[in-house]
Amino acid sequence: MPLTTRLTTRLWYAARPVIAATLVATSALWLPPVAAATGTPEPSSNPSPPSQLQPSVAFYYGIDPPVELLSGYDAAVVEPDSGFNPLAHRLPHTTWFAYASVGEVLPSRSYYADLPKAWLAGHDESWASRVVDQSQPGWPAFYVDHVIAPLWDKGYRGFFLDTLDSWQLVAKTDSERARQQAGLAAVIRAIKARYPDAKLIFNRGFEILPQVHDLAYAVAFESLYRGWDQAQQRYVEVSQADRDWLLAQASAIRTQYHLPVVSIDYCPPADRACARDTATKIRALGIVPYVTDGALSTMGIGALEPLRRRILVVQDPPARTDLNVSPGVRFLAMPLNYLGYRIDYRDASEPMPQGDLLNRYAGIVLWMNNDVPRPADYRAWLAKQIDAGLPVAVFTSFGIQLDPALAQKLDLQIVPGQPANGKLEVESYDSKLMGFEMKPRPDPHDYTAIRVGTRSRSLLRLRSGDFVIDGAAITPWGGYAMRPFGVYDLGAVNQARWVTQPLAFLRAALRLPADMPVPDTTTENGRRLLMSHIDGDGFASRAEFSDGSAPNTDAAPQYSGDELYRLLRDSGMPTTVSLIEGEVSDDGPYKAFAAHLRALGTRIFQLPNVEVATHTYTHPLQWMRVTGLGVSSTKDVQTEGGSQVNQDGLSIDIPGYRFSIDREIEGSIDFIDRQIAPANKPVSMVLWSGDCQVPAPVLKAAYDAGVLNLNGGDTLITKSYPSWTAIAPLGVMKGGYYQVFAPNQNEELYTGLWQGPFYGFTRVLETFAMTDQPIRFKPVDIYYHMFSGTKYASMKALREVFDTVLQQPVTPVFTSEYARKVLDFLDASITRDGERWTVRDGGQLRTVRLPPGRVPDLTNATGVAGYLPGPGGTYVHLTGGEASFTVIGQSKAPRMPYLADANGVIDNFTRTPSGFSFDLRARVAPQFRLANTGACRVTRHALSTDAHLLHVDVACDA
């Protein structure tokens, strides 16, 4: 194969410093051996059995790697300069590989300045890079120290070694070539010597395989069938001669070294048929396929094709509005989360995302209250997405005035005229998709004058004489619900109602699969999750009663924490307890009794059912204001970084304190760890304060401090606010950092902001019931403030809530465990191969939900302990980070024993021909139920002195 061909197609795109690749073995395929290099055989319809398990492989060079797609693979190689953080996505089944060029260096690389220039042997003009002399004695150590070690410290455990043949540009004699090859081999040995567990993928490097093949995880090459011509910027067919040469290399690698061989081929990103056909041909040869675009910046197709689980929401919230309270989060996110999708948000005032969006997104949802600022660009972008076949759902308005050409593309007609006599009435509507929480109420002064064509289906027809329009419809490109037929604003009572049935409409408009197993954060092993957390506000407040019965007359003052300590101790409720440092510090306003408060905090934290959290240093009330990202103020001051902040939004007055994000987050964590928390129980969470509208830099501070975060969202559905618009989503991504919302709102809004009634928190039981039936949207979260410990009525309400929920079939967890499940939801991959589904995540989220009446076939399932029909569907119990199963009707389920439900985490689940066994780890006394065990013997015993840990054996007669 000509040298120029080998080098111009290598996996390094110098003009684009973002690179990613992925290997996968869970949906691993048994593939036939590579054919002889004398030709390219047609794919065999009956391939011979392979000799080894093949990993599946994917490559992604774009920014913001789609983890929920890449996590379907065994290894994912990403460009480390993309900003991707592998430590934030630790997955048991996916190894994150960092791209690392060995033979060449780009001057923009951080280590270039430290590289002795005498080691640079030449130039590669095609890529504007410098070729490194591999024969330099100091090069292997330098490479490990300056390239590999920093990547290892960032969390990468694999390395994709590129440009392994660049030495051929400078070595002209046999002796020079031998020295270069020996140097390359020395680099690879040095990597494995420093990091024996590192996985290495070679991009080519055929000449050095005899020396280092035993150190390789896989060998990759490019363009077996389809290539990319970088110089001419075009896709090309690979010649038969070049293909035969590569197949000879592949055959030798597989036969002599028994290594997986990966081929990266290239098709236009919009041509999925080309990608699928090419991947199929490569697989038939026993080679691991991955087919992507020429820049590797879109998600391609390999041995598997995970389902797209992202939705792009484009909206136009008012200026200086935090994302938390934008319409896309308030109204759209919850139903989309319930359907199994994570969300990217884009403000319509910003340029729209470009490139092939179909490879990443399952659909686009528009929520536009006004016309966009750049209508021509937006119109072209919207038309492009529709032409590409990306489903679009539109709420409120299209964001632009429809012209006849665009209307025709959308199968719409622009209706001239206006309602006669100021009247507009409902002629008909689809009762399955419209009239959900209230019937449509047309407004003759606020409407969109369009009517659907013959290829669309009206959901809501409005008439005023001869003036006939469609307020909502399902169309060939998606669907729409114009204002006010999506969500109706009840301004007089500060509430809203869904007119559209959001789940049914979004599924229909976006063509979302109805049978996809949905990662579910509400349930574990069939039981609804139960958690509790306390915001630190009021820890310095005196209790107004003693022992819950009489006014406090004791000489020693009792504080809110004293009452809550007894409640937590006696109930055993797993609770995340936070403190505000400024309330318990000698620097704060309560110095006279701060030491007593710290001692009380230590007593609470020592309880085994309590985990430790911070509620910040000074409890900021308005995060956008105090960080300088919100409304300006005459009292703004400078932070260390020079940005404007406001001191008025702080709850605790600390003399001389100037607001600092690091002091609020990491500083308060350090204080609680050093002075209050037990040594073996450090701070694990930050519970956001005030309005909880935390900007991305604040979220980043929590991630950098190594703690999880919670709070925000406004789930407050009750009988007096009976609307899904009052149910918050899982959270929101800001600048690459995810804010996890509290599943439920705290007691303040049930007690009139602590104006009374102080027993009002009992109404949270209405919220728990309405987020469970007929659809389970949320786990149970008993969320309150330290103020609750100050009054007899509020404590009585808490006890009633505790007693009620603990009598229900629940799985108690800490809020940190819930937060990890939410983060797992974001990263989970779902792949379908015929009738078989494979689900992979980080092992924290242990439930997927199937449609009602559908169950997993346990005869061929892996990673599944059982299932239980419940509100909204069938809850499938996963045993770890990966499960694979087919789905059947419940009436066809085989009669074999399985776990029906349990109140803890299932570990070490093993199914045998005569039954199964498992370990059950619970936060309270462990409970479980089994199904179909009539002819079985069940034994159980504690695994240790911990009464919450059981081992269970189920042995059944044949």
Task: Please explain how this structure is put together.
The protein is α/β, with parallel strands linked by helices. It folds into three domains: 3-302, TIM Barrel, CATH 3.20.20.70; 310-509, 3-Layer(aba) Sandwich (Rossmann fold); 520-620 and 652-819, TIM Barrel, CATH 3.20.20.370. It has 20 helices and 53 strands. The strands form 13 sheets. A ten-stranded mixed sheet has the order 2-1-3-4-8-9-10-13-14-15, with helices on one face. A hairpin with a 4-residue loop joins β6 (120-124) and β7. α3 (139-154) runs parallel beside α4 (174-194), α12 (560-571) packs parallel to α14 and α16 runs parallel beside α17 (696-704). The radius of gyration is 30 Å and the shape is globular. The protein starts with a helix and ends with a strand.
What count of structural domains?
Answer: 3
Strand-residue fraction? 25-35%
Strand arrangement, largest sheet?
2-1-3-4-8-9-10-13-14-15
Helix content: 10-25%
Arithmetic mean pLDDT: 89
Poorly predicted segments: 1-51, 548-554, 631-646
The CATH superfamily of the largest domain is: Aldolase class I
What is the molecular shape? globular
Strands, count = 53
What's the CATH architecture name of the largest domain? Alpha-Beta Barrel
Number of helices: 20
Largest sheet properties: 10 strands, mixed
Output the radius of gyration: 30 Å
CATH domain topology of the largest domain: TIM Barrel
